[in-house]
Amino acid sequence: MAKDDKATRLEAIRQKILDDDPTPELRQGATQLVFADGNPDAEIVFIGEAPGKNEDLQGKPFVGAAGKFLDQMLEMIGLQRKDIYITNIVKYRPPNNRDPLPEEKSAFLPYLESQLEVMQPLVTVTLGRHSLNCFLPDLQISQVHGQPKRFQLHFHGRSGDHGVDAVQGDDEHLTEAYESTKKEGAESATRQRAANAGRVAGSAGKQDSMSMVLLPLFHPAAALYNGAMKQTLIDDFALIPAIIEKIKTS
Questions:
Q1: CB-CB neighbours of 229 under 10 Å
Q2: For residue 113, how far is the Cα from the chain centroid?
Q3: Whole-structure pTM over 0.85, yes or no?
Q4: pLDDT tens digit string along 71-121?
Q5: Cα(207)–Cα(223) distance, rounded to whole angstroms?
Q6: What is the DSSP letter of 89?
Q7: Closest CA to 212 of 134, 106, 108
Q8: What are the Cα distances from residue 21, in Å, to 79, 87, 91?
Q9: Rounded to whole angstroms, how far apart are CA atoms 106 and 92?
Q10: Per residue in 206-240, pLDDT tens?
Q11: Residue 137 exposed, middle or buried by CB count within 10 Å (0-12, 13-18, 19+)
């Protein structure tokens, strides 16, 4: 899919949120919708929880202290903001920066799924427990951070409720997780990505599901002032290039 086509389709999703108004109370208390930032053709998508004060004012995700920390970690692995795509589950700032409520996450999840469907990323990096548990609700971030997970994402409103299948390598790390999925006969992420892209092009983006590789990481805001967690996040972040390479060569 051409970059311009992806950008057009992503813009249509942004407009649909504005038209649908899924969370009127959040919208009324926010300055503006905070949809996403970065490269529509990126191989890596980062998903946070919800906008904070700076994001609400500037209209872009991760532009405060946590965003600067994220930028530093990206630079550490040879990437810049323009090389990735970043968004949140909830697109309006919750009042007083509180955690997003379950009903708010549920309201925005179909739009997030549509973003992922358009982008078909090699790796989806979840930042924090709220983001992880939107996709894999039974996992704990403290136990699985830095461990890539391959699973099947079912879209809302197409073939039943949102859900996942075939979580692999729950207790395995990096390459071992991929060896486990390979032994189970799972289709490689790159081949699945190509197959999914074909279905998107042929059916106006109406898939029932898609294969994903998800990498759970601690949220930069939580790690910023916690020395041990900060170093863990830096160490986990440094794994991203090897995970990308593993997927491409599977």
A1: 17
A2: 9
A3: no
A4: 999 999 999 999 999 999 999 999 999 999 999 999 999 999 999 999 999
A5: 36
A6: S
A7: 134
A8: 34, 18, 11
A9: 13
A10: 668 889 999 999 999 999 989 999 999 999 999 99
A11: exposed
